[in-house]
Amino acid sequence: MNPRVLDIPGSLIREVASKKRASSIDLGLGEPSLKPNPAHFANAMNYIAEHGIKYTHNAGDAALREAIARHYDYPEMHNSSNVCITTGSQEAMYVALKTLLDPSRDELLVVDPSFPSYVKMAKLEGVPVRTVEMSEDDDFAFDAQRILSGLSERTRAIVICSPNNPTGRVIDRAQAEALVGALERRGGDPVWLIHDEIYREQTFVENEAYLAERYPHTIVTNSVSKSNALTGLRLGWIIAPHDFIQQAIKAHAWVTSCADTFAQQVALNVFTTLGGVNEHVSWYRAQWAGVVEALESSGLRFIKPEGSFYACVRLPDGVASLDAALQLLEDHDVLAIPGAAFGESFEGWLRLSWVAPLDRVREGISRIAKFVKEFV
Amino acid sequence: MNPRVLDIPGSLIREVASKKRASSIDLGLGEPSLKPNPAHFANAMNYIAEHGIKYTHNAGDAALREAIARHYDYPEMHNSSNVCITTGSQEAMYVALKTLLDPSRDELLVVDPSFPSYVKMAKLEGVPVRTVEMSEDDDFAFDAQRILSGLSERTRAIVICSPNNPTGRVIDRAQAEALVGALERRGGDPVWLIHDEIYREQTFVENEAYLAERYPHTIVTNSVSKSNALTGLRLGWIIAPHDFIQQAIKAHAWVTSCADTFAQQVALNVFTTLGGVNEHVSWYRAQWAGVVEALESSGLRFIKPEGSFYACVRLPDGVASLDAALQLLEDHDVLAIPGAAFGESFEGWLRLSWVAPLDRVREGISRIAKFVKEFV
User: Fold this and answer.
1) What pLDDT, on the 0 to 100 scale, is given for residue B247?
2) What's the Cα-to-Cα distance from A84 to each of A182, A214, A240, B10, B116, rounded to whole Å?
């Protein structure tokens, strides 16, 4: 068998999550707990009743590609020919990395802490990966100078997830400007930015930067999973310059052929309904306010989330996050994800998701605060 | 960018198909023209209304995996742990090749004529490919001795699509026995068989062989696309020995995460409805009988289809299939796919699909017969 597949380790997130009990307060979940809007499904059912469910073009349904391009309206990337519809943002990222990076020559730079998939995908393709760690002293804020310090001669792309999973940090306009300016002054073959925007509709600050608005060598990946509680629909996309998308469509065509026609019709209804993409924003804002309040009164050291639906809390010095997560579940019946799952730089932290009902999240935070005090 | 992606040529099938007019008789289509059974969608809608649309396990919904394993009931592969649900049979084949083959060591053997995706996927992964051609004199019947003659020291897997696209030939039990017997006597690391069963429910002979019933090192790929007119649903699977599936699930997890939950519920209804998988079989049998009759009275040299929904006709000697397909469309308004799209061994042939209404297929065959007579 292929050693690159054999070498993929099991998921630490899943290992911990599998120990959850029925009674547990689940702060581990990486997906919305809201129900999706049934109107989007009704639209897709009407389409199927009339047309059956044929293949679409490899790149996706033309109307959906157009609607997505117009909605985000990125400079030089606002036409349907800048969009490739994929099987969730997972395939979007996989195809983007596969298309962009030549394993014999290129390296990928990943900004840590980060969701583990970027590193695992690159390894699966035989692409060398470097990571660059943001500073714990600064609550892991995106820092352009730190990111730039991670570049090597061979770096061809940098993956940035903002709002970030796990930290909840958002890259702001000043740091984006500094990063993009330095990359433009660098000369030679461009270093691409891959912006994972999966938590875009869970943004709680107003100085957030969209890299595609500032830098022409940007590839955006996203999906309707988190914005519209449609994780299981597996409907995502890549937005990128035309020449890149043409090549990405070819890779996508041989990996999965095309995205699900039904799912594409669901997404088309999201994008053609006024406010459809933002239909869950107010729920997240209210939830966020309650969670921040609970964290502030908990006595825990925490990173105030600027985006995403996570909040991270610091464990006492010297406590390993995996041990802590297992003990927290065993003794206090709360599931949280150990920081170690997101790179070495995040050891000593726990990631809490806050998509459960607010009183459950509050109770979970209260139990974690009690748990942490036991060490002192 | 990745040279393996840049090097993928455009699709000859799509190049020809793009020239189709509204008036054209379409014998090019590679998907059913039937409408899917709405009951399967109603079941999925009920599920979504109750549960929302969350991620499933990477390997797929447990009930669907179980239902598929039981339906096919292959020896040593009849448990849910032998099944991985994928985004159509395209991702099933992609993940199977990616998981099985070590690009630094292994070669893939493809039995030609064949659908071009196997070779393109292997090249995308950097896996060397050899092809072995079945004999035109024998109407491209699967021939164990010929297949075995294509093996090299490095061959780790053989892809066999039976019923075959494009030829419509089916590997029979005698040839399967000869092939499997020789592979078992060979010793050393096993050579795997990958059986693409996508046209299984379009089989019109009774001596067909299922390789997984005869050889333990068999990987099966399939989907509900052709059997149930659900091409756009993108719901397929791999059935394989447990140890292999465990590794394939990891590769699948980083390529697409998991299959669409809605699509999995549609497929679950197919597999849990009595006769659901076979609901379109009688339509194909009737259609097949009419097409064979039309071909027999046409005067054309044709390969009598044993399976699939294609029939192939011979062009006059020396006529290139791409030129012929373009001229046929231009002068007679009939779309057929040039044999050259399926490997050099199929140059000089045209592939006709017969999913259009029978009178249109008959008219198309009649025009092709007229077109061929013009050369004599």
Assistant:
1) 97
2) 29, 21, 9, 17, 22
Q: How many residues does chain A have?
A: 376
The interface residues of chain B toward chain A in range 219-238, judged by CB-CB distance below 8 A, are 229-235
Strands A25-26 and A334-335: parallel
Q: Closest-CA residue in chain B for A8?
A: B250
Run of H or E residues at B146: helix B144-149
Tell me the residue type at A176. Answer: A
DSSP character string of B8-51? PPPPHHHHHHTT--TT-EE----S--SPPPHHHHHHHHHHHHHH
Chain A 108-137, CB below 8 Å of chain B: which residues?
117, 120-121, 124
Distance between CA atoms of residues A233 and A35, nearest Å: 12
Tell me the average pLDDT across A141-167.
98
What type of residue is A136? Answer: E
- CA-CA distance, A223 to A297, in Å (whole number)? 34
- Tokens 């006529």 sit at which residue? B319
| Sequence-separated contacts (24+) of A130-137 with Cβ below 8 Å | A130/A155, A131/A343, A131/A345, A133/A343, A133/A344, A133/A345, A134/A167, A134/A169, A134/A345, A136/A345
Domains, chain A, ordered by start: 3-34+280-373 (3.90.1150.10), 51-276 (3.40.640.10)
Model pLDDT for residues B134-150, shown as the tens digit of each residue = 999 999 999 999 999 99
pTM for the structure as a whole: 0.97
ipTM for the complex shown? 0.96
pLDDT digits (tens, 9 = 90+) for B296-345: 999 999 999 999 999 999 999 999 999 999 999 999 999 999 999 998 99
For residue A87, give how far its alpha carbon lies from the nearest alpha carbon of chain B (Å).
6
